[in-house]
Design brief:
With 174 residues, this protein is α+β, with helices and mostly antiparallel strands. 28% of the residues lie in helices and 34% in strands. This is Diamine N-acetyltransferase.
């Protein structure tokens, strides 16, 4: 079994106690462009989601884990989405909530742990990420973990005033 614990962080399943943390992230309009969210989520809906979060990845086709530091503070979320067992691939997304916790290596460790889990435990052949052309920090993070830009989706997202491009990055398990 692959460990989901690094030097400074660990990944864990979501708990009912994560309600306010997830609520804050899902309703932070400054983050909506990262996930194509367009409407707020109620505590009721997030509570229902957390109650069903124990659903197996093979059934749900997704997995969301909390990123926690060694003091058990929840720092962010990391997701496996579009889990495709037939083609052995999935997408990955990551978010460190507070700016003061970014650029401290937490995201890098979390991404390394999750990619290792995807390849070693889920036996995936490849993982990918969709990242806005303007999100330089995320592009750097994923590229430092062996992901390669494989395409640019032109005018992919509309931010309310203009269209933006989005890269697709891929890492194949050799």
């Amino acid at each position: 079994m692959v460990s989901l614990k690094g030097d400074n962080i660990y990944l864990r399943a979501l708990e009912p106690e994560d309600l306010e943390f997830v609520f804050a992230i899902e309703n932070d309009t400054s983050l909506w462009a990262l996930s194509d969210t367009q409407t707020p989520y109620s505590r009721f809906l997030i509570k229902q989601y957390l109650e069903n979060a124990q659903q197996d990845i093979f059934e749900a086709k997704q997995l969301r884990l909390a990123i926690c530091d060694n003091e058990n503070q929840t720092l962010g979320l990391i997701d496996v989405f579009d889990f495709d067992i037939k083609n052995k691939r999935a997408g990955i997304g990551i978010l460190i909530q507070n700016y003061q916790n970014r650029n401290r290596g937490y995201g890098k460790q979390a991404l390394e742990l999750l990619v290792n889990y995807c390849f070693s435990t889920l036996h995936l052949h490849q993982v990918y990420a969709n990242i806005s052309e303007s999100n330089v920090a995320s592009l750097k993070l994923f590229e430092s973990n062996g992901f390669q830009k494989i395409g640019l989706k032109k005018d992919w997202s509309f931010d309310g005033t203009m269209y933006t491009n989005e890269y697709i990055l891929q890492r194949i398990n050799n």
